[in-house]
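User: Good morning. I'm curious how zinc ion would be positioned relative to this chain. Could you predict the structure with it bound?
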Amino acid sequence: MIAHAIAAPTTPTRIKWDILAGITIVHLGALLALFHFSWSAFWVCIAMQFVTGLGVTVCYHRLLTHRSFQVPKWLEYLLTLCGVLALQGGPLKWVSTHRVHHAFADRPNDPHSPNKGFWWAHMLWLFTWVDQLDMPEKFTKFVPDLARDPIQRFLEKASTMLNIAFGVLLFALGGWAMLAWAFFARLVFVYHGTWLVNSASHLWGYQSYDTNEGSRNNWWVALVSYGEGWHNNPHAYPHSAAHGLRWWEVDITYLLIRFFGLCGLATRIRLPQGNPAKLPSFKPVVMPKIKLPVPSLSV
Ligand SMILES: [Zn+2]
Ligand SMILES: [Zn+2]
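Assistant: Good morning! Here's the predicted structure, ligand included:
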């Protein structure tokens, strides 16, 4: 069972220097935005942070990890490409790590629990090698659905090269300003929006449901993460396409999924049982034990 598949956390012994170098370069590259500016670069930056940020939230998270709705394969691949261009790793690796997070949230095998400190949960965990999460032959066991798909496997393998090619394309189109804004600065914004879900949304905010771990609903994280900051709700209802469940919990990611639904492109959109609007009002509700989205995993 997956419970036995993840090694107990050990003191960091192996640093992922390639990831550390890559993320450092992205942050240093974003400083170029202070010296190079054009309005076209600015607007491409705004557009691409939505495209790639929502690629992560709509596709990597709610579609591929939790299968909270269905889309035609061509759209799944297109949305996966949007997620790939957020430079957070390929779909198999991202999804496997996140499935493990849900299975062990804030317990010893959680890859990024703030129990080990805010900065660990925010970004330091990214630089630390864990066999079960970093070796393809091990982490693919957590994503058998994606590992069967040759297109997803291709996107996994090509994810870094696709980002480099995209950076070169942006530079060719708009020079240093385009590279600084639409590539580096945009990546920094999307990075920290995603990372705050792992750090701040497991520390600060309110809990609508007693999920027996630290996930929180946090409005300011939701603001910079396309609705993902409402993070206690999906820990209670991992299969829900909507993470914002109260009227004030604005969830841009879910609005886009609903839009795909209205266009006939998204089907079987899953929500908590009953109408979310009629869920018990803002007070703790004891939920049954949460199961891993892919409970049949074994090693
Ligand atoms: Zn979480
Ligand atoms: Zn999730």
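The longest helix spans residues 150-198. The CA atoms of residues 118 and 232 lie 17 Å apart.
Let me know if you'd like a different ligand tried.
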